[in-house]
């Protein structure tokens, strides 16, 4: 396999600050030859005066340093490569495309511990609680104020379905120390034991027994057949499956996966983190059993390690997971599916910046297999590629089963104000809620902002209260009587006087889900109301509990942020109200119309999933906006065509290739110095090769104590980006002070 003239082994050493400059040539260890090594193996090598881990990434025949200086490998850590050739190549191409670090991508693909730094042990220390549930609740209450850390640990047991919990997990979840655990042990409240089994995420919770309708309808069958052709012919092709909400895309995925498994291959299915509900995974577990592995960020370190091992050893052939599951060590992938492909969570917002969709397309090409991108509201980019016939376009225009598409109406909030209604809810929405409650039907109200009020303003001096480390107003959370920063951990008690001028004329403005819940409770005191947002779903099973209650009909009105927009198939929700539409439309981001269209379409899709027809009301001050008109007509072409025209005129993606270069530093002066030099360089060197904006202050000009500036580069195509971006990066590294952080984000999602 290895060419005979290769004498050196290329190894990227795990020394993070070196990044990709950390690739060095080594010689085989004593008694071995180059032929004894394989790409993807992890090795121990001497580096400087230390020994470090590294990954074999290739072989060379020549080196540009003195042969005598080349060191020998100490030993192989994992004889079986951690990365198959196709995965290694995928990661290499991905690093190149996103102009990001190969080393960071390699590390993103591995769970902690597999490269020899421990973690292979199957026996770990765990604890179980010695009290029954009632005593446990009483005990927590008793020690809550006296020993809060101890009570938090007990609370973890209370919230969990698992009997024995690993000590490290307990400490992490309760954010406390080992000593606290020892104290509980001494008191006899918890008992030390061992966890032996492979740690598997607990998805055995039985949901409803309802099965997907396995008879595909005509549209589903057609979609299935088109993708099947690629499966049969081992063809690499990207499909965009554009299906209205409720059209049964999951049934198509299911059939495709079933077919792939029968062929002896494996499947990767990515779903947004929030959709990884027990229902979703249970459904696949109930049919494919232990063939299914899940990978997502809420797993404990141990669970992730063991799920990875099950895939690596071929015990699991179906991987369901969030973003980084695209790098699962599947031996023989046959298909990659990305559900809700428009979701922003597929783009990693920190180093290494990459998009799971981009990774999927590359990996599928390496394997000669199809990719299916599914969505009711595809990203503009994917839609454009489909129209350009780079992707094959498949549509599902009918809902599967009984449900018809809901009726959608816009409510002009300007008319409400004229009529003297300054409240959050229009008269029509209030009337409609009353009707539904009277009919024992359920209601969903969507407001994509959490907290009680968006900010607190002093009416004397006009100052809004801001986070000291971020240039962001603090959000008022009434229930806990605190002001919180939604961008960092900062929170304070609500001050009685203005911090700037000591006036007590403080007033809150802007509404979030917490206020909406209060308003609803006051208006409909007889209704059972639940709220679902980040603040109410912090505990392990709280998300599931709320959904269960809605499902059982214990909840009449569900209020929530975008967490309620997708995935759940409730049959008795017949009314959906959308509030705060204008907040979404007016975000300082060129994708705000697209996101608004997607979110409203998604949340509207929750209405009328059962036999009764659904109604959606969208409240807005701007009813003529094309994104809302498109929602109204349920005609996606209208939206995509209009939006594409605007993007084309402004040279925004997909008509250009955008790169955002962000600078962060603790003082503005440090950045300004860099910005000045960079500006000169850009002006001197480039004329019409590409278009750029900046350097300018970012929309969030300060975050977690760091000042932020950015440049946006719009390249005409990938070719130009490949040519000019390395030049710009080179210049930046030449002039940058080590006190300034720089990040290069190719195809950025966040522009703030
Ligand atoms: Zn003031
Ligand atoms: Zn902050």
- Sheet with the most strands, sense and barrel status: 7 strands, parallel
Mean pLDDT: 89
Rg measurement, Å: 28 Å
CATH architecture of the largest domain: 3-Layer(aba) Sandwich
| Approximate helicity band | 25-40%
Number of domains: 5
Beta-strand content estimate: 15-25%
Helix and strand composition category: alpha/beta
Can you walk me through this structure?
There is one protein chain. The protein has 752 residues and is α/β, with parallel strands linked by helices. It has 5 domains: 8-108, GIY-YIG endonuclease (3-Layer(aba) Sandwich); 124-195; 218-396, 3-Layer(aba) Sandwich (Rossmann fold), CATH 3.40.50.300; 407-450 and 512-637, 3-Layer(aba) Sandwich (Rossmann fold), CATH 3.40.50.300; 657-746, 2-Layer Sandwich (Alpha-Beta Plaits), CATH 3.30.70.600. It has 22 helices and 30 strands. It has a 7-stranded parallel β-sheet, sandwiched between helices. Helix 1 packs across helix 11 (356-367) and helix 18 packs parallel to helix 19. One zinc ion binds at residues 458, 460-461, 463, 498, 500-501, 503.
